[in-house]
């Protein structure tokens, strides 16, 4: 394969030289126009980037709001659970006291029954 030559064949005539210069100027103009267009497209991309940042910010704020609501709900549930546990423990303590009183009454009744049996046995032997 042959390598393309890097040398330019300059036109021999004056007219062809003018056309070459005009063509070159057009090419330079196109090069200057393209960066302007690319800057315009970059501006559009920057605008969409700003839109993306706005969307990200709104999403971030919504996420924080939902997270705050969930944390508040969890704290509320913790306090509710603590109140429920306190109520249940106070009921258990009162039931424990009631059970202890019933045990005392049961012991008193058993002592009374034992004493009455002893009296019945003594009267039966006499």
What would you say this structure looks like, in words?
The longest helix has 112 residues, at 14-125. The N and C termini lie far apart (144 Å). 89% of the residues lie in helices and 0% in strands. The protein is mainly α and 126 residues long.
Provide a quick synopsis of the model.
With 126 residues, this protein is mainly alpha-helical. It is built from one helix and no strands.
What is the topology?
Blueprint: H1 14-125
**Cα separation of the termini:** 144 Å
Average pLDDT over all residues: 79
For the sheet with most strands, the description reads: none
Helix proportion:
over 70%
Pfam family, one: DUF4577
Keywords: Membrane, Transmembrane, Transmembrane helix
Organism: Zonotrichia albicollis (White-throated sparrow)
InterPro entries: DUF4577 (IPR028099)
Q: Which descriptors apply to this entry?
A:
single chain, mainly alpha, 126 residues, rod-shaped, 89% helix
């Amino acid at each position: 394969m042959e390598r393309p030559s890097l040398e330019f064949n300059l036109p021999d005539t004056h007219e062809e030289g003018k056309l070459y210069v005009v063509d070159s100027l057009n090419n330079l103009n196109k090069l200057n126009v393209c960066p302007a267009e690319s800057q315009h497209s970059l501006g559009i991309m920057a605008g969409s980037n700003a839109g993306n940042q706005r969307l990200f910010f709104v999403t971030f704020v919504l996420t924080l709001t939902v997270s705050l609501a969930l944390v508040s709900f969890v704290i509320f549930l913790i306090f509710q659970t603590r109140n429920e546990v306190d109520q249940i423990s106070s009921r258990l303590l009162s039931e424990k006291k009631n059970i202890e009183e019933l045990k005392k009454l049961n012991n008193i009744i058993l002592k009374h029954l034992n004493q009455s049996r002893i009296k019945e046995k003594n009267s039966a032997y006499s």
